[in-house]
Input
Amino acid sequence: MWYQKEYNFMQNILDKRNVQIRILERNTTSDKPIDLGIRQILSRETEYNNVFCQLVFNTMDNMIYKLTDQYMCNYFYLQLPAKKQQILIIGPYISVQLTSQQLLEEMEHFSTNLNIINKLLNFYESIPVLSDEIFLFTTIICFAEVIWGGSDTFSVVKIQEEDISPNSIAQDNIPDDNEDILQVMEQMEHRYAYENELLDAVTLGYAHKAEIMLTHLSKMAFRQRVSDPIRNLKNYSIIMNTLMRKSAEKGSVHPMYLDRISTEFAKKIEMIISVDAALKLMSDMLSSYCRLVNKYSMKSYSLPIKKTIVCIDANLSSDLALHTLASMQKLSSGYLSSLFKKETGHTLTDYVNSQRMKYASKLLTTTALQIQTISQYCGIHDLNYFIKIFKRYYQCTPTDYRQSHKYVIKQ
Output
């Protein structure tokens, strides 16, 4: 192989992490099973052939595949550039270290035979655990860039074995009779009603009530839908992020605020590496959306005032003069000024200045920016005027404020 050196380098890295790396050729046998023997323990040789003799060879050029099987094992595989078809396969590994109790519960799905369970426990104790998959993924990406000539020459596809397996639906999950069907229906109805009550709490900004309900819901609703427990909770987190965003929107929070927080949580969800991290993120998500409702709900405001407030909060450094904000909505300055005072209890100028000074205080205590720069970011280009306004709100100069809050500028 012209990329032998790169392959050897990657192999050395993976060997040090005890991650198996193999090159497969069609119709060839190996002394050591690729899945390290788990399907052999369970007498599922046909399934082994379907995955490792058929599926992995059904690949496209310039494509990296990540396979998660029903035993919580992960594999990466891709087709190497060669005259005859060769498949590079890396794995298996698991993403999270399972406790003995979790392993026993998982094994119960496969067998109740004590001898088999002991063999399965030995299997999971020997398989490598990679809590930080980014390391492995980055290694594979670097190798792919070499063999395919760049970062924009290939794609990555994720596959769940249950999505492609003819036996993906477990028979013990199918109700046997009408009584079982009614029981499942009642459970689902109860869970959906509970979820709706939780979302109503978010709409109203009731953080404490929502937190208590989330704790109960996690025990009732987060059942395993895919074999990888981390992926399972990531999926739930994605659903929750969407539902809470819609609930907060129902609570009259403008989409501008919602999009910002929703995007941040979407990024954090993909960084989840443990069950505890997923549950904590869900709790943070709930609190954040409730705070958003309490802070930005504009339920009692008319449409012109809603638009005015959003325009102000969206860009404090822009021109926020009364006549500018009024002309944006084709309103007279007098009408907007009167309506703003009536609905908010503040003059528009006071509201703009208060928002700018809040932002200034945050920058003073969290950054090393010069005060002149902070003044510019707050939309006030006259430094002396900025200091005058700041003293009106905080009874001290920006410099004294920064010193009293003990912000230390790093050298």
Remarks:
- The chain has 19 helices and five strands.
- Residues 166-176, 407-411 have pLDDT under 50 and may be disordered.
- Residues 38 and 123 are 7 Å apart (CA to CA).
- The first helix runs from residue 4 to 16.
